[in-house]
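Encode chain A's predicted structure.
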Amino acid sequence: FALPVAVIVAALGGWWVAGRALAPLRQLTEAAESVRADHLDWRVPGAGGADEIHRLATVLNAMLARLEQSFHQAQRFAADASHELRTPLTIMQGELVGLLRSGELDPAQEATLISLQEEISRLDRITEHLLLLARFDSGHVALERAPVDLSALVRAAGEDAELLAAAHEIEVNNEVAPAVVVLGDDAHLRRLVLALLDNATRYNHQRGRVRCSLAGKAGIVELRVSNTGPGIPLERRSGLFQRFFRGDPARTRGGHGLGLSLAREIAHAHGGEIVLVEPGETGWTEFVVTLPRSA
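Encoded structure for chain A:
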């Protein structure tokens, strides 16, 4: 009778001792899993002792400190470089405008200056997007929280997209529900919608189609932007929202690969999400943005 009791007591004792011994490791694992890019200042507990677990915690904390320093340096570099580039680009843009208005250029010189003006405008957009992304990364973007008539915003953005699409004979269809209101920043939301419409127009076929729909549901707003075109290969979709992502590997479409990344940051800042979905129609690509709806 004593042998089974001894075995049970030994098993329970071993289980208790093992649990006590592995508890610090579980705490380290949970703390390490909670560390994210926006919370690199977190540290794992248990550093400062003399055993191997405490040494492991000390090494992990030192590694996190180095990562935090490198991450902040990269953020500052992107923000400072973008800020410093904007002034000379603005000056060059002004000089080119002055030369074009002078009326002293022959047609070949005028065409060259117009081409330079377009490239400078493109560089200015890239620096503006990089500066915004750096601010989103650092959490220093000041968002206004005011009711925004998203219906009117999407209709206006759709009209702008029609002007861009006319050069390629692309048809733009808007289906916008009335009086859809969200709480957020009007300028950033407009930038999000225009980024999606610009992608839908740029990565399309000649005489293709773009569909933009806005609907309000129970507590949420759903914006859908879909387009015909070559689509996004399955092997490239994992990096869809990364900076400088190109759906066109040959880089022949003229984009700079920051639009979708910035659109996702704006959606997240408004408590929403943006995803690529299967539209159910062959030859179509569709993005869906969901945002909390304002009363």
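Strands lie at 146-149, 171-176, 181-184, 209-216, 220-228, 273-277, 284-292.
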